[in-house]
Amino acid sequence: MTIDLHAHSTASDGTTPPSELPRLATEAGLTVLALTDHDTFAGLPAALAASAGVEIVPGVEISCRLDDAEVHLLGLFVDPGHQPLGAELELIRTDRVRRGVRMVERCRELGAPITLAQVETIAAGAPLGRPHIAAALAAVGITDAFTSDWIADGGRADVPKHVLSTVDAIALVRAAGGVAVLAHPRSVKRRTAVSDTQLATLAEAGLSGIEADHPEQPVQVRDRLRAVAAELGLRATGSSDFHGDRKPVRLGECTTAPEVFAALRASAVSVS
């Protein structure tokens, strides 16, 4: 088995339609792919309908708050029809639109010649997100969008958003019959890294795994995360975090060991 547990489609901020992901996964030699769009299951029906030859794991990537930083939590093997989780995701998505509109306004106030219509065209029906705004900024020559000058967390054009605490998000994922895996906890592209102490706290709250092998985490970071996972009794996963043309990452660039996948699946069954 070749397993990738983190990928996005046009249902959130990816550039690949969910109906195309199974074919691309098969071409990449994958046998299992988790569809983990940001705060939505909207792409799942199309991915499942086209899934001949590859297993599609129902998943979601939830935006969370951990102390003073934003982190992302993968919910894997979740029931997409679970009402409490669905209601919280709807609230997050609705707030994302409000935030996106205001961020475009702030960019314009700072002199960027972009419009909401341009950003909505880039989003192509997906909930507005910072990658869509960044693409609009890049189109007018502003290539440093994710900095304090523009739309990085706390940047001049940033707008606070509604977020769950990570502990509450873990509880929702477990209630929906799934397992919670912390995504890219020490990505070099993020301003903050999740500490060993924070990981221990999340493990006590029901976290099942941490994404150790990820394209944005150097080899020495991956090794340390695997060691911490072993110390805390967590599973160490690997994933591409595929976004189509939006990131220079290919499906299956990082993968999860079959025995880790089997353990996560068994844990999800026991929770549900």
Automatic annotation (TrEMBL):
Alphabetical list of InterPro entries matching this protein: PHP_dom, PHP_domain, Pol/His_phosphatase_N, Pol/histidinol_Pase-like
GO molecular function per UniProt: 5'-3' DNA exonuclease activity; 5'-3' RNA exonuclease activity
Region (Disordered): 1-22
Compositionally biased spans, kind Polar residues: 9-18
Domain Polymerase/histidinol phosphatase N-terminal span(s) in chain numbering: 3-66
The protein's name in its UniProt record: Phosphoesterase
Organism: Amycolatopsis mediterranei (strain S699) (Nocardia mediterranei)
